[in-house]
Specification:
The complex is a heterodimer of chains A (259) and B (186). Chain A contains 8 helices and no strands. Chain A has 259 residues and is mainly alpha-helical. In chain A, helix 2 packs antiparallel against helix 3. Chain A is globular. Chain B folds into 2 domains: 35 residues; 149 residues. Chain B contains 8 helices and no strands. The chains are: A mainly alpha (259), B mainly alpha (186). Chains A and B meet through helix 4, helix 5, helix 6 and helix 8 of A and helix 1, helix 5, helix 6 and helix 7 of B.
Chain lengths: 259, 186
């Protein structure tokens, strides 16, 4: 497989970016807070090294199967990051907030169904069935991840649950990357691999370029410390207690009346 | 280009535009809530007609919020309750107040993590009240509001009465600076 100058530049940029990000996570001690995200970044470093070695010393078939096996692992880890961010937002006291469980399940099921429906509509012109599966698989994962991230925003705002600074930054990066990927995957589905691969390759470069921007964003944001919590005044604490007590009574009454 | 490809491109265009629009709308909403101060949020609580609320509330519960069990309790008819509270409009205020409480809980969870347990309690309570009020609004749409008032609304109003009494007490003790505005509002 022949690699162009830009291919090598992206490989080097991606490798370096992941190394810097992993260092930031370790130096700033964010690994304990975001273990799945750290695993995703580490897996990407390993992936870059493995694919580089196979590209040099392996066969075309070795490269193909390794690339797609690792791509599946990458998608699974990205879904893991969605879970990690969701659990940081929707488990403020360590357990899933009772008012959100049902909405979350509905959103996940709806997202899978919608992504599957759109993927079914896609009919990329390819020579081999495996190329169709590759293109459809990439589109499905991009669409699903985008829906899940937008769902996280909607549910958290509706329920009144805030995002901690780093959770918000990781989610924004991955969310923007997923949304851009949908657009890029549409292009790849449309141009596909039938006659020539130039447009497909250009779009692959565009996808990596967007990812590199996200990497830089994460490096800067995760290096910075989150804003310090504000001090709660005694007056505010009293007001909060008063409100809570009165609303609690109100709810008890509503519940008893329903029974 | 095949018909299926056209459908695919159209569907993805709608999908992407909707997703981005929804994300931007909710992101902007969360930013607006984040920018408000505690006092601004408290000031958004709306008070329903004090006398009517008191009449409905005290027909159902005593001043401490305990349900009355004496013979004179629950004498008000659903139609009277509906009229006193202002029907659907009154319920909308109840709903808006629940939204303000959720915003208050959001504020506390965002800036005062040490009070997260209390804020989460307040948020869950307000969310459940919101849910009950939504049921009443649903009943209003199907023309069963008055019947549902007997089951759902009076306890809610009784507790709102208690809540407003407590918030008003906070204002009167001078712990909040907007007392003149509030007195005008209620």
């Amino acid at each position: 497989m022949h690699l162009t100058g830009i291919d090598l530049l992206f490989w080097a940029g991606s490798f370096l970016g992941h190394i810097v990000l992993l260092s930031v996570l370790l130096i700033r001690r964010r690994t304990r807070e975001f273990p799945i995200f750290t695993t995703l970044i580490s897996a990407n470093i390993v992936r870059t090294i493995v694919l580089f070695l196979i590209q040099h010393y392996g066969t075309k078939a070795d490269y193909f199967y390794t690339y797609w096996s690792l791509a599946i692992l990458d998608v699974l880890l990205q879904l893991g990051v969605v879970y990690e961010m969701t659990s940081r937002i929707f488990r403020p006291l360590g357990a899933w907030a009772s008012d959100i469980k049902r909405s979350l399940l509905v959103w996940i099921a709806g997202s899978i169904a919608l992504a599957a429906g759109l993927t079914w509509l896609a009919s990329p012109p390819t020579r081999l069935w495996i190329q169709t599966a590759m293109i459809r698989g990439s589109f499905f994962s991009a669409a699903l991840l985008s829906e899940l991230f937008v769902g996280m925003i909607v549910l958290s705002v509706t329920a009144g649950l805030p995002w901690k600074t780093h959770v918000a930054r990781i989610s924004q990066g991955l969310g923007i990357y997923s949304l851009s990927s949908v657009l890029i995957e549409v292009g790849r589905t449309y141009f596909s691999l039938k006659r020539e691969t130039r447009a497909y390759d250009e779009l692959s470069h565009a996808r990596i370029a967007v990812y590199l921007v996200c990497l830089v964003f994460w490096i800067i944001m995760l290096w910075r410390e989150p804003p310090q919590p504000r001090e709660m005044t005694e007056q505010m604490r009293r007001q909060l207690l008063e409100l809570q007590r009165s609303v609690g009574h109100q709810l008890q009454s509503l519940r008893s009346r329903r029974e | 280009m095949s018909a299926r490809t056209v459908y695919f491109l159209a569907a993805v265009a709608v999908f992407l535009v909707s997703l981005i629009a929804v994300a931007l709308y909710y992101y902007r909403r969360s930013r607006q809530t984040s920018k408000k101060s505690w006092e601004q949020l408290l000031g958004r609580l709306t008070f329903i007609d004090r006398d009517s609320v008191a009449r409905i509330a005290l027909d159902y519960a005593d001043e401490s919020g305990q349900r009355r069990t004496d013979d004179a309790a629950s004498e008000l008819e659903p139609a009277q309750i509906s009229k006193l509270i202002g029907g659907l409009k009154g319920l909308e205020i109840l709903e808006r107040n629940s939204a303000v409480l959720i915003d208050l809980a959001f504020y506390v969870q965002q800036w005062h993590p040490e009070a997260v347990v209390l804020a989460e309690d307040l948020r869950l309570t307000a969310r459940e009240i919101e849910w009950h009020v939504e049921r009443l609004r649903g009943a209003a749409k199907t023309g069963n509001l008055e019947t549902s008032f007997a089951s759902y609304a009076q306890p809610a109003i009784a507790k709102y009465y208690l809540m407003t009494q407590r918030v008003l007490a906070l204002y009167e003790r001078g712990e909040l600076p907007m007392l003149p505005d509030l007195q005008q509002a209620i």
